Amino acid sequence: MIRTTTLPALLLLTLLLAPLARAQTPIPPPPTVDARSYILVDAHTGKVLASNEPTARAEPASLTKLMTAYIVFRELASGKLKLDDLATISEHAWRTGGAGSGGSTTFLEVGKQVPVKVLVMGMIVQSGNDATIALAERIAGTEETFVQMMNSTAKQLGMLGTHFEDSSGLPSPQHYTTARDMALLANAIIRDFPQYYPWFSVREFENHGIRQQNRNGLLDRDPGVDGMKTGHTESAGYCLVTSAIRNGVRLVSVVMGAHSMKGRENASSALLNYGFTFFDTRLIARRGTRLGSVEMYKAERSPVDIGLSHDLWVTVPRDEMASLKSVVETTPALVAPLRSDSVVGRFKVLGANGQTLVSEPLHPLQPVAPGGLWRRAVDTVRLWLH
After folding, report:
1. Is 289 left (phi over 0), alpha (psi -120 to 50) or beta?
2. If I label 377, which of 94, 97, 145, 339 is the partner at 20 to 30 A Cα–Cα?
């Protein structure tokens, strides 16, 4: 059975207030920015709004620390690691990432025991290589073992163009990523660890009496920006992963290989403004909301309410939002019993030209138990006649 409907109540007001007829304005091309490669995506839907060479191999520099942070957050969330746990600063962490190494540092001392919280702040805010390596060693014993965890996690997240050689982002021919993969990683942090994400908006952090500013200048330039990470080496150029939210819509931009700190910030700002101006993302249906019903054979009760197992968001050009329609397609001759994860149809969102933008499985909102002997006998006959 196919039933075309207007969108759920969340969008009903938008549809009613929209003009009856409005010509759709073509979206201009993305801005030209200072970057070897870039990508702009919606955080809720993953829809790519703009890109240039998004799968081209690039050096991540300190963007690498986003993967280290992801694993640290995973350990914290599981309880295997605690913020007040102590980590001993090894000579490797001090020599490779400490003062005098030429990279960013949190000014840690060899042999000192430092709380994990300090190391996390040092890694995220100060981009300290020493703090990053110390965290890697605290979790995995050695940085080499931790790197194996990084590469395994990258595969799990679908980062197909990424390979890590260290935890902090030192230059190496076999240490690489892509703009697309960095966007996947950023979205995974936002989605999986919202409790830790606010650390990316901390403006400054002090350790050993030395106060350092967050290198992400967009935190002060744009009130909607609340993360995430900068990166720079001579060979990588200036890189920046940025996340911003406006009116409930969150976008993530990744800029790789800009020519200056100002260039990466201007590029990120231009991409974000482009996305927020010309696209819109809306929550179409909430998990567990009744979107329709289906008739059930041999069931304890019929009809059965159906809906989605997750919240459904859709990203479209802003002018097209009012033209969206939803379609509920149900599977005929459904027979009990059914579990709550059984597929009983599809929920589709159609665009302005009738094209299917999203198609998601529909499930019973509650498990469906079999009916009694009489109901099963009657419905057996009904199915013969169906």
Report:
1. beta
2. 339
